[in-house]
Amino acid sequence: MYIRNKLSWQLPDSAVTSQSNYVGRRQFLRTFGLGLAAGALLPSVAPAATFGFPDSLNAAESLPGVKLTPYDNILAYNNFYEWGLEKGDPKENSNNGWKTEPWTIEIGGMCTKPGKYDVDDFIKAVGGIEQRNYRHRCVEAWSMVIPWDGFALSKVVAMAQPKPEAKYLQFTSFMDPKNCPAQRSQDFPWPYTEGLTLPESTNELAFLATGIYGKPLLNQNGAPIRLVVPWKYGFKGAKSLVRIDFVAQQPKTLWNQMAPNEYGFYANVNPGVDHPRWSQKTERIIGAGFFGGRQPTLKFNGYEKEVAGLYAGLDLRQNF
Ligand SMILES: Nc1nc2c(c(=O)[nH]1)N[C@H]1C(S)=C(S)[C@@H](COP(=O)(O)O)O[C@H]1N2
Ligand SMILES: [Mo]
């Protein structure tokens, strides 16, 4: 594992380019942060992506062999079923009047300091933003490398102070059937929900993202705040969060309710456990072009060193 010391002089790219984009208070908070700390967290085994995009936002953070996915691909190749099932649907449909500002997020359940926050106050309360480059692996066997802005989920846990009976966190995405046609149908058990164990939530890598490439999240990526769990399949990363609750029982999740034999609660990236309908041994690199190719999938998406301890003694085949 490669953990770069977070040095105050390592400004995010947003600090040195596109200054004209950085005028609004919200935009500033969600990507510039308060502490101006930039960190890179990437797996020790670098994937062999070789297409022509920058290694990192910052030369100081570039890692050999790891390329960021182009911004355009991150904005146009999405899963966000509230806005349609095709990869281009979220970009097209989530930007037709759906308002993600202002936004309220509520922290509740079994904790001593529950609270309801405007999202910008929430960012301030946890102490601001840092930048992390993470690999992103969808259960559909494609992958990206995304430069997120956001903060460690552990900060929220520390702030909320879970009660002893809290064993899991449940994440709830927005519910707005008036503005979101898909939520007026019963095809999925809306709202989108996800969950993590408490130890997973306090792992250093678990992250709440508020920006990408130094710009606030756009609607299709889960504005204004979404979960990112880089060692798990992408569906764990619930978008456009309105609630985080501390709970005693393993929470229901949308995909686990839809197809429990295909989408387990743990959903750790694992090339050794195939999806019932396709192989998980390799992954297609998004943005690498038609012949850009595939690369081997890494256990825990390359973050084995950081997270394998969470699953000591657990049969990862049964607990997929
Ligand atoms: N609310 C909500 N969150 C969601 C989804 C969704 O359909 N609805 N899709 C998930 C899946 S399958 C993936 S791979 C990622 C995709 O995130 P991205 O579009 O920002 O790459 O979001 C996850 N979060
Ligand atoms: Mo996904």
What keyword list fits this structure?
320 residues, alpha+beta, Sulfite Oxidase, Chain A, domain 2, 8 helices, 15% helix, globular, disordered N terminus, binds the ligand Nc1nc2c(c(=O)[nH]1)N[C@H]1C(S)=C(S)[C@@H](COP(=O)(O)O)O[C@H]1N2, binds molybdenum atom
Give a verbal description of the structure.
The structure is a single chain. The chain has one domain (13-311): Sulfite Oxidase, Chain A, domain 2, CATH 3.90.420. The chain has eight helices and 15 strands. It is globular. With 320 residues, it is of the alpha+beta class. It has helices spanning 25-32, 71-76, 89-93, 119-126, 153-160, 198-202, 254-258, 304-307; strands at residues 2-3, 37-38, 41-42, 104-109, 115-118, 130-138, 142-152, 168-173, 193-197, 207-212, 215-216, 226-228, 241-247, 282-285, 294-296. The two termini are 23 Å apart. A hairpin with a 2-residue loop joins β10 and β11. The strands form three sheets. Strands 2, 6, 7, 10, 11, 12, 14 and 15 form an eight-stranded mixed sheet that branches. Helices cover 15% and strands 22% of the residues. The ligand Nc1nc2c(c(=O)[nH]1)N[C@H]1C(S)=C(S)[C@@H](COP(=O)(O)O)O[C@H]1N2 is lined by residues 78-82, 138, 173, 192, 221-222, 234-235, 237-240.
Let me know the number of strands. 15
Bound molecules: the ligand Nc1nc2c(c(=O)[nH]1)N[C@H]1C(S)=C(S)[C@@H](COP(=O)(O)O)O[C@H]1N2, molybdenum atom
What number is the mean pLDDT? 86
Level-1 CATH class name: Alpha Beta
Biggest sheet features: 8 strands, mixed
User: What gap, in angstroms, lies between the N and C termini?
Assistant: 23 Å
CATH topology: Sulfite Oxidase, Chain A, domain 2
List SSEs in N-to-C order: EHEEHHEEHEEHEEHEEEEHEEH
Taken from the alpha-carbon principal axes, the silhouette is globular
Beta-strand percent range: 15-25%
Q: How many discrete structural domains?
A: 1
Helical element count? 8
Helical content (DSSP H or I, runs of 4+): 10-25%
What is the level-2 CATH architecture name?
Alpha-Beta Complex
The low-pLDDT segments are 1-23, 35-53, 58-64
Query: Which class do the helix and strand fractions yield?
Result: alpha+beta
CATH superfamily: Oxidoreductase, molybdopterin-binding domain
Radius of gyration: 18 Å
